Amino acid sequence: MQGAPPNIPSPLVGEGQGERGSLSPVIKVENLCKHYGRRKRVVEAICDVSFTVNRGEIFGLIGPDGAGKTSIIQILAGVLSAGEGKASVAGIDVIKNPEAVKGIVGYMPQGLGLNLYDNLSMAENIAFFRDLRQVPADVYERNRKELLDMTRLTPFLGRQARHLSGGMRQKLTLICTLIHLPDVLLLDEPATGVDPISRQDFWKIIHRLVQERQVTVLLTTSYMDEAERCHRVALLHEGRIIDQGTPDFLKTRLTGQFLKVTAQPQYEALKLLRSWEDVESSEVFGGEIRVRIRTKKEDLISYLTEKGIGLDSIASYEAGFEDVFVKVLGRQSSVNSHRLGNKPQSALKTADSALPTADSSENILIQCNSVTRRFDTFVAVDRVDLSVMKGEVFGLLGPNGAGKTTLIKMMCGLLEPSEGSIKVAGFDVLKQRRQVWTYVGYMSQRFSLYRDLTVMENLRLYAGLYGVKNKDFKKTIEPLELSGMEDRLARDLPLGMRQRLALACALLHEPPVLFLDEPTSGVDPVARRAFWDIIYTLSRESRVTIIISTHYMDEAEHCDRLGLMHQGRLIAADIPLNLKSTSEKRSGSLIAIRTSDFRRAFDLITGPFPQALLYGSHIHIRTFNPESDKARALDFLRDAGITDVEISLQPLSMEETFTDYIRSSEETNA
Hints:
This protein is an alpha/beta fold. The protein has four domains: 25-246, 3-Layer(aba) Sandwich (Rossmann fold), CATH 3.40.50.300; 251-342, Alpha-Beta Plaits; 364-395 and 403-532, Rossmann fold; 577-668, Alpha-Beta Plaits (2-Layer Sandwich). 34% of the residues lie in helices and 26% in strands. Strands 6-7-8-3-9-10 form a six-stranded mixed sheet, with helices on both faces. A six-stranded mixed sheet has the order 20-21-22-17-23-24, with helices on both faces. The protein is globular.
């Protein structure tokens, strides 16, 4: 296609492209309401919700777990009835005629490939949706090829869906959703469980469909950088829209100073900050504490130094959309109520005193030596050597299918290594598996509890499985904010609460080692912050050793050390700061471009800078010549008529670091 932006392939084949640039609403919602339950148990899921989405617009529904986002998407997709109000898609009244809308929308439900058929191969699933949508053969072949190329799934076409990683299932679901190229996309948490590189691919697809076909997109997301890419967003809380507008407009709601503080001892500094009335919020990011304060920076310095805290550095940072989310929803106080500064030290007790030290160094709790795992001819984990220290938070990062979950299952004793050895708390996972199980807690990637049991019934069941008797469950559920939910069915809990319940079950036998496989996948930022406070408390107060896998790169900053996996190999293991330093030496510094017209700027800048990436509403470029490239990019954009441009040198984020390591590994092993 002539005139297509660089690095963006020609458009897929679809029908009904129509005129571009129309501002008439494609999606229109007026005073929409939805209630669940009867009589005294009525739950108000949506209340008086109104918004419109124009043709060619990306509109984001953002809110905490249980805010009503999924219910709105399901009503518009014609799979859930509404209580009151009006809703239409492309002129079709979805309240009166829900079946009529199903043929014109692409609907991707929340969850890791929940609409896939596990017994079918990837190719068979795609073919099934072709038949379901009655896509012509020539259109199907072209769309299938390009979607497979974009998602990098061609090598796995013969694999059954049940054997795909969580991220691969999401990408396959996206292919099935887009195979008929609908003009309206309804995407419920589409990138949950997908690694950063694949998320970049996903957004290139969405960006291209919007730019070239004027597709209308309504999505929900728990990634705040994705919220920044939307044209407009609506913030929901308890079923109501409490604010909406462009991301830049909503950022104007923020007040106060945003500072990153490096202090010693960090744990004491954090507790002091959270007890100071002038601090609005505070979070640990690796060696830094990020705070929002009402007062001056000098007051913060005086406060900490008077308390005997040593300050290594203090500097301002630019607030992100996650700060908007927390501020506008007004829930920071509820998060702080269970922060470590206010929590009884015995609340999350673990069996720390009984750790064996035989056959291992006193401080090394997990030791992997040349660990390999094969599934037939496929090598899922390849000769991994790894040591994890007592009380350490060790993060595992890697693309989907890199081997993270397989390695965690082997360390838990749930899978046998094909080669090599693993010791956990001094026990060999092959020869002493039952002893290992008494010393570890495991929270799986998928929700592993019984959905038809209540919170308390799940806790009692797992206590029995672990052989725990006379357990005071109150001491387990209170720090995790599950009090008052004891009689609720697990399936009725918001995702964030379900994850806390899974963590509570993993902690019942007070294990000194905890394995968490993507525990916050799909959880909103407020709930994720609270979850990480629990992890930090377990590590720092109870000296629990925690191994955690995640696709949230901001969460990676919380870890003491990180292990980067790719194609089954552990390609790097170090503290985040050292990983960033190595990446900068290999691939250059980072310059960030900021402009109100960032979508057009990104299309243009990929000509002279093909390595440019879009992160939120910023364009990031790696370079060894930052000053000259800043000037070159500025001149290029101004010549194209984009004048409101700011270009600055920025420290590397974990996302750029991760992407650089993976691409370098791919080049090395090509």
